[in-house]
Amino acid sequence: MLRFTTNTIKRVSQSLRVATWNAEWASPRDSRGKRVAKVLEDIKADIIVLTEGCSELLPPDGFTLEGANDWGYQVAEAERRKVILWSRFELLNVDITGHSDLPSGRYVSASINCQYGSVRVHGVCIPWSDAHVRTGRMDRKRWEDHNIYISNFKKILKAQEELTLVAGDFNQRIPRKRQPLDSYNLLSDAISDLTVHTTNTPGSPLIDHVATSPQMTASDIEIIENFDKQGQLSDHRGVVTNLALEPVTEKFRTK
Description:
This protein is α+β, with helices and mostly antiparallel strands. The chain has a single domain (2-254), classed as Deoxyribonuclease I, Chain A. The chain has helices spanning 31-42, 144-158, 181-190; strands spanning 2-5, 16-22, 47-53, 63-66, 81-87, 92-95, 107-114, 117-125, 163-169, 195-196, 208-212, 217-224, 227-228, 231-232, 238-244, 251-254. Helix 2 runs parallel beside helix 3 (181-190). The protein is globular.
């Protein structure tokens, strides 16, 4: 069962500001990429999980962990990564494998020491429904690679003892929209010990999410729009939120 929080909690002081966004392979050398980089800089986040991007889009001052560069597809530009973790805090005990059966190139993890103590941050880019179906290795059925990822990511989370933060591209809308019920239930079970903070946002439900241990609450949830005055920035809307160790003032549950 997924746990969701409402977005009406007043912002608390000394919060941990977290953002996640899929940049749709924006290049730092063209106009769109430069605008994406400006958005990421202006967010003033403490932690960013960027998916389908490159490190050059991220703020210059901070620590960066790139995912592996092999996710089963030919890479058009060598600097592209499916997932990158950026942090103002030093990244400790880094991991870009997670589990031997986890689809490669789509996972990063590190511990940070922040005002709330040690937090284990997991950056994810869960495969989309057609991963390796008609392109790439072409050895999967629809949702197969997606479900394999979630099943093995669950094993990582269940072994977790620190405060946990998961952010990135889940490739599922929460609350559920059109994805298969079995895939939704698989995700629900995998993150059943976490609180998903990025629901009930304006517009269509997001697929880029932030989830944490239930001791952490979220405030001032903001949408990163996928358009600006000059045009499209990405095919995803991102999200920013402020996390704190504070009592949750309002919750609801959904199946």
